[in-house]
Design a protein that fits this description.
This protein is of the alpha+beta class. The protein contains 2 helices and 14 strands, in the order H-E-E-E-E-E-E-E-E-E-E-E-H-E-E-E. The strands form 3 sheets. Strands 1, 2, 5, 6, 11, 12, 13 and 14 form an 8-stranded antiparallel beta sheet that branches. The termini are far apart.
Length: about 210
């Protein structure tokens, strides 16, 4: 029994290394060709997207941005309200993932946590969450209450599905469409962000290839 246990440890290590290499190669190839890969480091989109998810985004849908020459190819369609997008941070370095709430020409308002677009309630995502029941007044924060604003041309209004734990358009304003990298389509793989667990126990198998809505 001791002999079998001793043999299983290096075997498990080899399988783990093979799995990591496989995931790394697949991610690299896909990112170079047709998709944008994004590792989610925070919970601003929970529970639609979990901390530790790695997403694949469609780079062609909104027009792929060619590196070096910084030229965007023609889009198949424009971003729509409800799309989950990956984009470059408008203020800092890095990338973010949020949900499009409103597009150019639409008016956004927030009343007691309820988001309105052109006067109509914006459907709250089934997998979204409110993690803080407090209602902050508009003079303190735009988190829960915000006067109507109209989205300018070539801009978007984006927010996280985890409404009280998301830094988004309520903080830094409208998103320039040129910053969009792709539409988040699917969770490629996912790991719990818990360091004390063994690697193989951190794998969220139920998140693999989960389609985003």
């Amino acid at each position: 029994m001791t002999h079998d246990t001793a043999e299983s440890k290096p075997s498990r290590t080899r399988e783990t290394v093979k799995f990591i290499l496989f995931v790394a190669v697949i991610t690299l190839v896909l990112r170079i060709t047709i998709v944008e890969a994004y590792h989610v480091p925070s919970g601003s989109m929970e529970n639609t997207i979990m901390t530790g998810d790695t997403l694949l985004g469609n780079k062609f849908l909104y027009g792929i941005l060619l590196p070096v020459i910084n030229l965007r190819l023609p889009a198949l369609r424009q971003p729509r309200s409800g799309d989950v997008i990956i984009f470059r941070h408008p203020v800092e370095s890095g990338r973010l993932v949020k949900r499009v709430i409103a597009v150019a020409g639409q008016t956004v308002e927030i009343r007691n946590k309820q988001v309105f677009v052109d006067g109509e309630p914006f459907p709250f995502p089934e997998t979204g969450q409110h993690s803080d029941p407090r209602l902050l007044p508009p003079e303190m924060s735009r988190r829960d209450n915000m006067a109507p604003v109209t989205v300018p041309e070539d801009r978007l209004w984006v927010m996280g599905d985890n409404r009280e734990d998301s830094i988004d358009s309520r903080s830094w304003g409208f998103l320039d469409e040129d910053l969009i990298l792709g539409k988040a389509m699917i969770v490629l793989y996912s790991f719990e962000n818990v360091r004390h667990k063994p690697f193989w126990r951190r794998i969220r198998w139920n998140r693999f290839f989960h389609v985003l809505h």
